[in-house]
Every structure is written in structure tokens, then in C-alpha cells.
Amino acid sequence: MSKTYTLVPEKGGSFRVSPSQFVYFDPKRQEYVSIQVPGAEIFSSQENTTKPTGESAKKPEDTTSGNPFKEIKESVFEFQNTLTMKIKRNFAANKNIFYFLIGAFLLGIFMVTIPRKLWIKYKRKQNEENRASFFPQLKELEDLIAQDNREEFLNLADGLILEIPKKYLKIENSQLETKFVHQSLKEKYDFQIADLWKELYQDLDQLRYSPALETEVGLVEHYVKIKKLIHLLKSQT
Question: In terms of CB atoms within 10 Å, which of 10, 88, 91, 233 comes out highest?
């Protein structure tokens, strides 16, 4: 088996052909055989050189010319590069202004958010304090006195007097017995608070069955005593 190659030099001079190796399978020997082809040195004179002719001499066609999509793509790419460079230059020149604007924006968020949270927290605490000091109930008692609504006043006052030991002594409804509450208030606070609570509790029945003319004066006195009791408890808590 043989193969012939024709070499056509394009310029004169001495050329070195490197040795090569060819491997094939020999069916007779049932194995692969390697053939070594030695290298050689070829000399070509200037006169023997030939220039490529025909199709080989043609220049490769410019496939990019007249392609509108490629031109658009190149224009967009060039525009992106130009825009990126301008942004980088502007940022480098005005980075202090940029940082200032970012800082002002964050400060604005802080100034709006934090005071609002503090205000909500303050109002929540104020509402809790009002509930703890029985302020809404006291205000309602004042209104009922002004309206001369004796029945509603006594009902609200009764509930308020029973609510006070539950809040300050942490006791259940089953423990709301006059003697037990009086003793507990005396042990935790003092005689004045304990006696005042007992007096208020006992006055309720008297107010319910007193004549209307006497009750009008009694409601005001009862309200003043309730307010005093709450003030004493709050001052010692």
C-alpha cells in the first residue's frame, strides 16, 4: 500500500520535512503494525516556485459586508461601551455627591421610621398606664355623676372596687371575700389602704338603699374615696 503526495513550493529555499509514523492493522499477522517514515530535506530554487492560481488565488469573501443585523449588533455594542465609560467617568467625578444622596436617603428613612415607632410605643405604654390606673373608669364615673345616673354609677363602682384587689393582690374571683381582701391589703400595703377599701365596699349597699337626695351627695363622696384609694395604691406600687 502506498500513497503519493505532490508538494508545490510557493517560495525558494530549503525545507525540512519531519519524520512521521503510520499505524495499521495487519490481518495476516493479526496485530497492529507501525511504519516509520524518515524525515527529509527538500530544496526548491526561486525559479521553481509557483503562485497560486484559479480559485486558490481568490481572496476570501467578506461575509460581514452588507449584513444589517451584524451592523446593528456592532452599533449597540459600541453604544453600550460608550455609555458604560461615561457612567464610570461621571461616578468617579461625582462619587462624593452620590454618597451624600445615599446617606440623605437613608437618614430620611431613619427620621420617618424611628419617631413613628417611638410614638406608637409611647401611646401603647400610656394606654397601659391608663388602664392600670383605672383612668377610663374614673372618667366614666365622673360622667355618670354629671348625668345623675345613680344605678349605672353604683354598678360601675361595684365592679371597680372588686377589680382593684384582683389587680394589686393578684387574687381570683373565688377569693374576693371582704375579710380576706382586707387582711391581704393590710399585709401588703398598710391599714389606711385596707380600711379605705373595706369602707368603700360597705358603702355600696348603703348607697343603693339611701334616698335619692342623700345619694346625690353620697356618689360624689364615694367617687372621691375611690380616686384616693387608687392614688394610694399607685404611690406604693
Answer: 233
pLDDT tens string 32-81: 777 777 777 777 775 555 555 555 444 555 544 456 666 676 777 777 77
Of 151-165, 175-189, 204-218, the least confident: 204-218
Q: Are residues 98 and 137 in the same domain?
A: no
Contact 20/35 with Cβ under 8 angstroms?
no
Q: Give how many domains the chain has, as a whole number.
A: 3
CA distance 159 to 200: 12
Q: How far apart are CA 44 and CA 29, in angstroms?
A: 41
Longest dimension (CA), the chain: 148
Residue listed under C-alpha cell 505532490? 6
Range of the domain at 175: 133-235
Share of the chain residues as helix, strand and coil, in percent rounded to the nearest 5: 65, 10, 25
